[in-house]
Design a protein that fits this description.
The complex is a heterodimer of chains A (312) and B (478). Chain A has 312 residues and is an alpha/beta fold. Chain A folds into two domains: 221 residues, Rossmann fold; 61 residues, 2-Layer Sandwich (Alpha-Beta Plaits), CATH 3.30.70. Chain A is 36% helix and 28% strand. Chain A is elongated. With 478 residues, chain B is mostly helical. Classes of the chains: A alpha/beta (312), B mainly alpha (478).
Chain lengths: 312, 478
């Protein structure tokens, strides 16, 4: 469990890198922290790892206060840092062994975890090679293995799939999903919006140290882009000017071959709409929700924050 | 103990493994370690031949210990790079964050790095010394006694601890390896000077004098380790990406501390100075106690030893009294030869020198110099006693009138300087090393400007215009 309230960090007595961040991530949940470079994501994660002491506010991670019990916080958190941070002259096996020892695992458990993680991430063949000889993706996988070595209840992952090939990225995403199902609390910092969309239960968008938006993907879409829209597409020109829209459907836009509606309760309104269209022998080709990606939400939020117009 | 040593050893072992696998460290070191003893051996041979021609038995006796000391020092200065990049190098390579995110305690990381930082150079130093000793054992030179050799090896060990502990402090504070390497001169050059001083001790003193050098270097190294541990915060390693000197913030921090909450000079004297004085109570007591001891010890030393050295017969005493009378007869014109402002500036400058020495030695060198000056009073009173003047009267009329102000001022400045040193080596929660230094210096300047300078001004006037008159009155026969 991660809870933070008014979490803030000031550097050099004049620059607020993080300013009043409040968030909550429950066990079995993944929070994706999105934002530009320098927005304050890494500083937030470092405070949650008890690496940086908050200037203001508080945070509890795995049941421990980051300011009062930093040691306990660090023992219960697995961190994947922005840079993989491998020791290039150590072998992969030695590297995990070292961190297993640092986290206080007994030799038997170290061996078991080491073997399992190396095997899982497809690094078993390279276990005795020095980290310096690994490819970028292998280094990233080994760094992730290090974060998981002590089987932590909380995971803070900074760009977990960066530099990975699609297969490895998929493997890592599957592992993150598996960890969520085993009730781990996970925070991911990423620029990969598709990944955030696919994995995250909640998403927070951070800009200049402040959280602009925080909620589920649906909540964000609704609050930034408005109610859900559905689009009916016709095979040929079809006159809809005298179409009576059922209660609950609001016309958003119309063209000769399409109609767009905003609908609050699609389960009630959409069947009526389809019925109305087919009753008039509309050459209906498709009737579907207008796709609205996280990317639109993110870019619109950023544009609003910077005071510029967002062109979808 | 075991609970603490295990994580320290873990950090050290990993670092050590990293070093032995880095041929860029190992190969040059092995070359230097094996090559240098042969060069030193040849230099010894030539020096011995030269001395034998002109006769220099003492130098010959001490030549090998001196060369051992130098041979021990060279690998220390080369391998300093290991300690210098211990933290900042990891930071630059991006490997520090996973380590800092682990449950290792700050002191475990620090001491682990320190351990390997000391061990590596020492292994190379002792290996080099061993090769050299094997080489010279074949020659017809005076082999150092086991006692002397132990002292020199101990001194080499103390040098290693001193250099590495300074290098690690630099490594924690620097933000790039380049900056750390540039700062290395501040470690190597002072230790090279120290080595020259120790060489003087080896050639001119007896063996036992080396114990003072060992004690001094060990004390300084201990204080540096304490400083490093006190100010090691994992936050600072990650919080500062670029070296920026924030002069505005520095000026504000210093000014805020210096002025406190006072809105006028009188308020500053009424409210802020007493606060600083209260904080100086303990260092002032230490300074006072040590001053008394220094005066008594030097007085006793003079009484006991000077008659033997100077062969004080009644005739000699009479000669000295005549000399004193002749020199003190022109006390009236002291103000012309030594104007009060000159004396004032000299004393003020000395106080600043105490501070500067104290800053580079956490108070110890400044305190030593201060005690040396104070001991002079005891020495002069002892000398007065020896030639038949009343030491008490000499103190009351010759020291006390201006000393009330001067000694109080210098004692206060020394106490404030001791506090600066103590604060530097004491953990200050939520304060960086720079902030601690600025605040401590602001406190010192509060005392210096608020009390020391006015007191020294008063003292110099009294010393030039009042003390000579009192001496004339007390000793009319002078």
């Amino acid at each position: 469990m991660i809870e933070a309230s008014d979490l803030s960090k000031q550097f050099n007595n004049d620059f607020w890198a993080v300013d009043g961040v409040t968030l909550s991530v429950k066990p079995g949940q993944i929070l994706a922290l999105l934002g530009q470079n320098g927005a304050g994501k890494t500083t937030t994660v470092r405070m949650l790892t008890a690496l940086l002491r908050p200037t203001r506010g508080w945070a509890r991670v795995a049941g421990f206060d980051v300011a009062k019990n930093p040691q306990e916080v660090r023992a219960n958190v697995g961190v994947l840092t922005e840079q993989h941070g491998l020791y290039m002259r150590m072998t992969g096996e030695e590297y995990l062994e070292f961190f297993g020892e640092v986290y206080g695992l007994d030799p038997k458990r170290r061996k078991t975890r080491n073997d399992y993680l190396m095997e899982y991430f497809g690094l078993a063949q390279a276990a005795r090679r020095r980290c310096g000889e690994y490819s970028k993706g292998m280094k990233q996988k080994l760094a992730l293995a290090r974060a998981l070595m002590h089987d932590p209840s909380v995971l803070l992952l900074d760009e977990p799939t960066s530099a990975m090939d699609p297969e490895s990225a998929r493997l890592v995403r599957d592992e993150i999903a598996r960890l969520r199902s085993s009730q781990r609390t996970i925070v991911i910092c990423t620029h990969n919006l598709a990944e955030a969309e696919a994995l995250a239960d909640t998403i927070a968008i951070i800009y200049r140290g402040k959280i602009l938006l925080n909620g589920t993907l649906e909540e964000l879409k609704r609050s930034v882009l408005g109610p859900v829209q559905y689009e009916a597409k016709f095979a040929e020109n079809f006159d809809t000017s005298d179409l009576d829209l059922p209660q609950g459907a609001i016309l958003a836009s119309r063209s000769a071959t399409s109609l767009r509606f905003e609908v609050e309760t699609p389960q009630i309104v959409n069947p009526k709409l389809v019925h109305a269209l087919t009753a008039r022998n509309a050459p209906l080709v498709s009737f579907q929700e207008v796709p609205r990606k996280l990317e639109h939400v993110y870019l619109k939020t950023m544009a609003d924050a910077q005071g510029v117009t967002y062109a979808a | 103990m075991r609970r603490n040593f295990r994580p320290i050893w873990m950090v050290a072992r990993r670092e050590f493994l990293d070093q032995v696998r880095d041929w860029r460290i190992i190969v040059p070191m092995l070359l230097l370690v094996t090559l240098f003893p042969f060069i030193a051996d040849d230099a010894t041979r030539q020096a011995v031949n030269f001395m034998n021609r002109f006769g220099g038995d003492l130098i010959l006796d001490r030549l090998v210990p001196f060369v051992v000391l130098v041979i021990g020092f060279f690998p220390l200065s080369f391998t300093l790079v290991v300690a210098l990049e211990s933290f900042v190098g990891e930071k630059e390579r991006g490997t520090i964050e996973p380590l800092l995110s682990s449950p290792l305690e700050d002191r475990h990381m620090y001491l682990g790095k320190l351990l390997v930082g000391i061990t590596t150079p020492l292994v190379f130093s002792f290996a080099s010394i061993l090769i050299y000793l094997i080489l010279i054992s074949r020659r017809d030179v005076e082999f150092p006694s086991p006692y002397m050799l132990s002292l020199v090896l101990l001194l080499t060990f103390a040098h290693a601890v001193l250099m590495v502990s300074s290098a690690i402090v630099i490594s924690v504070q620097a933000t790039t390896v380049r900056a750390a390497n540039l700062l290395a001169s501040f470690v190597v050059v002072p230790v090279a000077f120290l080595l020259q001083g120790e060489t003087v001790l080896i050639f001119w003193g007896n063996e036992d004098v080396l114990w003072y050098a060992i004690a001094g270097v060990t004390l300084l190294a201990g204080l540096l380790i304490r400083l490093g541990l006190s100010h090691f915060r994992r936050e600072y390693l990650l919080g500062r990406e670029i070296d920026t000197l924030n002069f505005k913030w520095m000026g504000r921090t210093f000014r805020d501390r210096f002025t406190g909450n006072a809105r006028s000079i009188s308020e500053w004297y009424r409210r802020e100075i007493p606060i600083t004085l209260r904080q100086l109570r303990r260092p002032l007591m230490i300074v006072f106690a040590l001053s008394v001891i220094a005066v008594i010890v030097s007085y006793m030393w003079v009484i006991r030893n000077v008659p033997v050295y100077l062969d004080l017969t009644p005739e000699r005493v009479s000669e000295i009294r005549t000399f004193v009378t002749e020199n003190l007869s022109n006390l009236d014109s002291l103000g012309e030869r030594l104007p009060a402002p000159v004396l004032f500036f000299n004393n003020a400058r000395t106080t600043i020198v105490f501070l500067l020495l104290g800053l580079v030695s956490f108070g110890t060198l400044g305190l030593t110099l201060f005690l040396g000056n104070i001991a002079l009073i005891g020495g002069v009173l002892g000398a007065a006693d020896l030639v038949g003047y009343s030491p008490l009267l000499a103190f009351v009329v010759g020291v006390l009138p201006h000393g009330m102000f001067e000694l109080s001022a210098v004692s206060l400045a020394t106490a404030a300087m001791l506090k600066v040193g103590a604060q530097l080596v004491t953990p200050q929660p939520d304060q960086s090393l720079g902030e601690t230094l600025l605040i401590s210096l602001a406190d010192w300047f509060r005392i210096f400007i608020g009390i020391v300078l006015p007191f020294l001004a008063i003292a110099s006037v009294i010393e030039i215009y009042v003390t000579p008159v009192l001496i004339k009155l007390a000793f009319p026969y002078l």
